[in-house]
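FAQ: What does a multi-protein file look like?

Like this. Sequence, then tokens, then the next protein.
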Amino acid sequence: MNPDLKLLSELVPPPTSPVCADSGWQEVETKLGVELPSDYKAFVSIYGSGSLQAIIHIVNYSDNRVSSEELISVVFSQLESYKDSGKCEEFKAFPEEGGLLPFASTDDGNYLFWKTKETSQQWAVAAYDFTSGTIVYVPDMGMVNCLLRLVQKDNPFGDRFCNIENFNPPCTFVPWQGE
């Protein structure tokens, strides 16, 4: 197990019965046209669909109850409307080269993305901060390391994205039941 995922699972115990934890990645990746990062797939395999600390809602591309295409479209439609109103800087959207692909959202309009590159192991993490309208890029950081740092109250985005005081222990992961 990835050391960051091991530590995260000690700090935030995975659900005993994760929802949609182990779907066929090959089918998902074929549909998206890209290989997803291995730390993300490992995270989903033990946590499934749900929310970290009821704040960060993880996108589970293997959860067939949610259309990947629709989810991506909704996120970028929202960001485009923010951009049109001056609440978001310029960005490239997936599947454009170097485009952003969402992996989490918050209730207050913030998003976590991967900034895609040729291979998924090179992808950087980016956060859209609704309050400032900025996108903060953090190179050389994977999704699991990003979540671990937030849980450890070490915000990799500085004062952007979310209030780390929301991560007071005990931190929890709540499975998404949905429909």
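And here is the next protein:
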Amino acid sequence: MLNKIKITFLHKTFCRNNMKSFSSEIQGRKINFCFDGEILELIVYSDNEYDELESFCLELDSMMYLYLGSFPEIKSIEYNGELKDITKLANRFSTDSYFNRTTMTLCDITSETVNEETYIAFKNDVLQIPFYSMQYLVSSKYKVVMPAHRLTLMTHVVEGVVDIEREKRSEINIELKEKYNVEKGRSLGQYFIHASVVTDPFIQADNIYNADILKLLECNEYTFLQTIKDTRNWYSHMWKEDDKDKIKKIGDGTMMLIYFEILYCVVRLYLIRNVLRLDIESGFISEYLYVLHDWIVDVKKLGEKFKSNTYIMKEIAERMAEEE
């Protein structure tokens, strides 16, 4: 007789995007995703015991986190009809409500995004320690941590999610030095190379969709990468105090929050596109980037036109309210 585990999740994007129920099979386990508005019941049948089944389901939960930008709230776990204790789950499974925004969705939960192939790629190719670190950085327990510390840790996540062999790193270094016209004899450094690989999908998307995020930051590709690198090195105590005027570190609190949001988008885009090799619908990525653009415009009071449907509709609603 097969064991049955049922986990009930809650996430507003399930309803907002009208996600559809589906079934799948992963490594001999029969899986049902049953959506009903904001509720998802994940049901798995297997001969695995509870600990192994719970671990498997939480891996699927982590995949959903990657796609949605926040963990669905776990309401209950049942194993063979018995309610299990959920109070001792790791803090990373409780995302700060600030990041629970429907516009952060890059993929819906479907049979194309959660199946045996994507699960195996997620298990084998996503480097779990930096990925878990990112989950903690946006958790509800971490929101009290100083922005400088959170941003520094996120810059380390950027480096940690990619593994580049020394030979390949040398090739990339040569290509980047030619691209950015860097003088001979100067190495860009391992961090810059890693960051260039991870940020590439974001930079491409910023150009394709004319999101103008780098433009708002008054950066080109090179200075964007150099700013991330110098910020990571400064707050990780890799620079001397005398060097602080020579580098491009972020010191302003608002800019720290902005770069944190950008790097969160950067890492998710890289993992979904380049590691799991999933296509992202243009509507998802464009709205995500446009909201990021509009948020920066709003926070910095730049006075530029909004690009996202989210902010445009909000602006219209505010005008209508003023006219009443």
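Q: Is there any per-entry metadata?
A: Some entries carry free-text notes. For the entry above: The mean pLDDT is 93.
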